[in-house]
Design a protein that fits this description.
The protein is of the alpha+beta class. The protein has helices at residues 3-15, 19-33, 35-41, 52-87, 93-96, 100-120, 130-156, 160-181, 216-225, 257-264, 279-293, 301-319, 345-359, 364-380, 386-404, 410-413, 426-430, 435-449; strands at residues 200-204, 209-214, 229-232, 239-240, 245-250, 267-270, 328-330, 336-339.
């Protein structure tokens, strides 16, 4: 089994809802079948012993209650899916499906049901599984407690700010892992420049799909063994059409059919993007939630401001990192072996703020929060990243002037505010200049040059 197939199997196991419930059915049946050993090993007091009719009634009630509760959990899950796709983003559902608590609740419920059914068939007038009936009651209590925790958790996760926090946490974790996976040239900060022009195309895909993950360490080892440079043609998150080449080979011998199959096995393709190696997908989900809140159908700019809080946290992490290590990968001897395209700071920043600026142009609080976000970024990102922040500030100034020019609220829309509206005044709240101040500075620059 190659790496890409193992990756897809792991993704399937993380996302499916049937594995733990199926395990619960198996475990419940096995424990019920082995209950006879417990009955002979444990001697319960008289108060914990049951008549045959009482035990049968209790177990039947438990089994029926577990069936009803399982149906209710599934109904709640369907309602959550419906509300989440309408309010947030359909792409968020990939995280929702992976919630372990939901699967554990379903597993315990169906396991208790199976256990109760397996005990029912063993009840006879002169033989009652007292230990099993008592254990079934313990499982019922555990099921109810888990159900209450499940309900509380998913009710709270229906809040947009909770969803944004969950997505941002997953995106930051994926970004830190991608930075840690980079291998800068140990001989110095300047990495060798990859050759220009198209090399030998390799790794043609029999089926199209989105690049979900790439095994960089395996590609480096492959390139070292074949003494060549591999250039990955499609970054993580990009859709690859059927028959497209995944790699360019520079140097080394022509790859054999086995070599190409091994290369393809180091790139996992799937139906949609995942966050595992694609922190930009987390940014995409947060932006989708914000712009859906800004749509005319919902008209909830405060939700967009709350999403910008978590988006700012993610952008600060990305803007403070050296992104060059994410693209070039070297072997132990310091030779450049793999070049894998990765989004630049300009790409990440424009993805994070452009659409929110466009859809929120008429909202005073969204404009103010964006100004505060960009001011904080400008003060904290790496020096080489500040030019992109300045460009976004310029675009934001033009947007504010276009939307509020001649409007009574132009002065308010031109101020930064970390709370959108209602926060401490201007500079103290933002840590940087306002759009209006930037505009005056830009207008004064031609006069100074003259």
């Amino acid at each position: 089994m190659d790496w890409s197939l193992r990756f897809r199997v792991r993704q399937s196991l993380k996302g499916n809802l049937w594995m733990l419930p199926l395990l619960g059915v198996v475990v419940g049946g096995l424990v019920g079948a082995g209950d006879s050993r417990l009955e002979s090993a444990v001697d319960l007091p008289q108060s914990w012993q049951y008549s045959a009719s009482t035990a049968a009634t209790l177990l039947a009630a438990i089994a029926g209650a577990m069936v009803a509760l399982t149906g209710f959990v599934l109904t709640v899950s369907v309602l959550v899916v419906q509300m989440a796709t309408e309010t947030f983003s359909a792409r968020y559902m990939r995280l929702f499906y992976r919630d372990t608590l939901q699967k554990v609740v379903l597993g315990v419920l169906v396991g208790t049901m199976t256990f109760a059914f397996s005990l029912l068939r063993r009840i006879e007038p002169d033989s009652v599984p007292d230990v099993g009936v008592t254990l079934a009651w313990v499982l019922v209590v555990a099921s109810l407690l888990l159900f209450v925790v499940f309900l509380d958790r998913f009710i709270h996760r229906l809040r947009p700010v909770a969803v944004a926090d969950l997505v941002a946490t997953a995106g930051k974790r994926a970004f830190l892992e991608s930075v840690a996976a980079g291998s800068p040239d140990p001989r110095g900060p300047e990495a060798p420049v990859p050759p220009e022009g198209t090399g030998v195309l390799a790794g043609h895909t029999p089926n199209g799909g989105a690049v979900q993950a790439i095994r960089i360490s395996g590609l480096v080892d492959w390139a070292r063994r074949h003494d060549c440079l591999l250039v990955v043609r499609h970054p993580v998150g990009e859709f690859v059409p059927t028959g497209a080449a995944l790699f360019e080979l520079h140097g080394g011998a022509l790859p054999t059919a086995i070599d190409e199959r091994r290369l393809r096995g180091m790139v996992a393709l799937g139906l949609e993007r995942t966050i595992e190696q694609d922190p930009g997908f987390a940014v995409r989900i947060m932006v989708d939630i914000a712009i859906k809140a800004l749509s005319a159908a919902i008209n909830d700019p405060t939700t967009a401001v709350q999403v910008l809080d978590h988006l700012e946290d993610t952008l600060l992490l990305v803007g403070g990192a050296d992104l060059r290590t994410r693209a070039d990968h070297h072997d132990a001897e310091g030779r450049l072996r793999v070049v894998a395209p990765a989004p630049s700071w300009e790409d990440v920043l424009s993805q994070g703020v452009t659409e929110i600026r466009q859809y929120g142009a008429s909202s005073v609080q969204v404009m103010r929060r964006l100004q505060a976000l960009l001011a904080v970024l400008r003060a904290n990102v790496r020096p080489e990243h500040r030019a992109a922040v300045d460009e976004e500030l310029r675009r934001l100034r033009v947007t504010v002037e276009s939307a509020f020019g001649g409007h009574v609220d132009l002065d308010r829309a031109s101020r930064p505010d970390r709370q959108g509206i209602g926060g401490p005044h201007a500079l103290a709240a933002s840590g940087g200049p306002s759009v209006a101040a930037s505009s005056r500075a830009d207008d004064a620059a031609p006069a100074r040059r003259a």
